[in-house]
Design goal:
Serine Threonine Protein Phosphatase 5, Tetratricopeptide repeat; mainly alpha; three-stranded mixed β-sheet; single chain
């Protein structure tokens, strides 16, 4: 009798000697245990033969199945490029690509970085080496070492072939549809996203990417103490907003776990003390920071924008007109006292960047709300002088006519 037959043999209800039954049960149990061990051993063996890529030339699919995953990754990239969500800035993209090359010098062609417009805190990699980083995430970093921390992590997902290794761990279609929507990409195929790191890999693979990425960071000569700092201020934002977004920072392991892991690694002696490796880091990031903040406001995410703008350290990394965005965030939030806060922020922007036309328009509206019509007229007229081709010119002119009817300020 084979082992399966022994396992499934019926139990007689008649009194009998249990010796034979116990023997068969023991044999069946051992057979089941053996089968589990064989399955586990096969899984471990399969994992062990999937060695990390070591160079561009070696970075090729090792099987038809892996080739299929690569093809899906290419399809995902094509969908993203047709979707209009790419942040088009050749200089900044080249800069970020240069940081990736410093981390992964053996992969000058295979690992490619694409910036996305989304303000959400996310970055992800796919199986063929494409790495996508949201503008909202880049805008939060304070120096190049913090940016490099996330790039090293995502690049390690590729080098260690996590997209292929996790292909059987598909997430639900509903979850993937939600992610696609938040990325601004409609109709992303769930199966493609499931082989990327957008939703987070297993805890084991994420931890492996943390360790491998940290090693890359150290070998590239970055200050490894910046690694946990890349997550520290993000933890504050996630906690303050009570966000439930299932993105890079919220899953596998959770943000706090990742911070703790990198903190433990960072206390060990490591190479480099380079937190701001390029003098133009702040200049490179100013544009994307402002664009992200404006995007936040257009999406009604004033609280998220305020977390950044109310931090004086962050304001120093923004252009002189940044207080205008702070004023807009207060105005849109509309809490008690926010109109006064907005007015103060606008006037600070006016002093710091008197050539920034939008500030005059904003102060015109604040003055109107306060029935200070003389001042409102001056601000609106100055705005139209500075921006004669403004798209809202007729809109502002209608307010000027309204002011003329009301007369001067009492």
């Amino acid at each position: 009798m084979d082992l399966l037959s022994l396992r499934d043999a019926p139990v007689s209800c008649q009194p009998q000697d249990n010796t034979g039954w116990n023997a068969r049960r023991d044999l069946a149990a051992r057979a089941t245990t053996f089968a589990v061990l064989v399955s586990f051993t096969a899984t471990v063996a399969a994992q062990s033969v999937i060695a990390p890529y070591v160079s561009d030339d070696a970075a090729k699919p090792g099987s038809e199945e892996e080739q299929r995953v690569w093809s899906q990754s290419k399809e995902l990239d094509e969908m993203i490029r047709k979707s209009g969500v790419i942040y088009e800035d050749a200089e900044l993209t080249a800069y970020v690509q240069g940081v990736m090359l410093r981390l992964f010098p053996e992969f000058p062609e295979r690992i490619k970085v694409t910036l996305l417009k989304s303000p959400h805190l996310n970055a992800f990699a796919v199986a063929d080496g494409h790495v996508y980083v949201n503008a909202g995430l880049i805008a939060r970093f304070q120096n190049e070492a913090q940016l490099a921390t996330v790039l090293a992590h995502e690049g390690s997902h590729f080098t260690h072939r996590h997209g292929y290794r996790s292909q059987n761990s598909l997430k639900s279609n509903a979850a993937m549809a939600t992610i696609g929507s938040m990325m601004g990409v409609v109709g992303l195929i769930p199966a493609l996203l499931a082989t990327s790191s957008v939703y987070g890999y297993s805890r084991e693979l994420e931890t492996e990417a943390d360790l491998a990425g940290f090693q890359r960071l150290s070998r590239a000569g970055y200050d490894v103490r910046e690694a946990p700092r890349a997550f520290e201020h993000l933890m504050i934002e996630v906690k303050t907003l009570d966000t439930k977004e299932p993105f890079f920072f919220a899953t596998h392991p959770k943000l706090k776990d990742r911070f703790d892991n990198l903190s433990r690694l960072a206390v060990k002696p490591g190479a480099g003390q380079d937190g701001n490796s390029r003098m133009d880091y702040s200049r490179q990031m100013q544009k994307i920071r402002m664009a992200t903040l404006q995007n936040e406001l257009s999406m009604g995410r004033s609280k998220s924008a305020l977390i950044v703008l109310e931090n004086q350290d962050n304001l120093t990394m923004l252009p002189p007109e940044a207080p205008y965005i702070l004023g807009e965030a207060y105005r849109l939030r509309g809490d008690p006292g926010d109109l006064d806060r907005a007015d103060a922020a606008y006037r600070k922007a006016l002093t710091a960047a008197p050539d920034y036309a939008q500030t005059y328009r904003a102060l015109g509206f604040v003055s109107m709300k306060r029935n200070q019509f003389d001042e409102a007229r001056q601000f609106f007229n100055r705005y139209l002088e500075m921006a004669p081709e403004a798209g809202d010119r007729k809109y502002v002119e209608s307010y000027l006519r309204m002011i003329d009817k009301k007369g001067t300020t009492p």
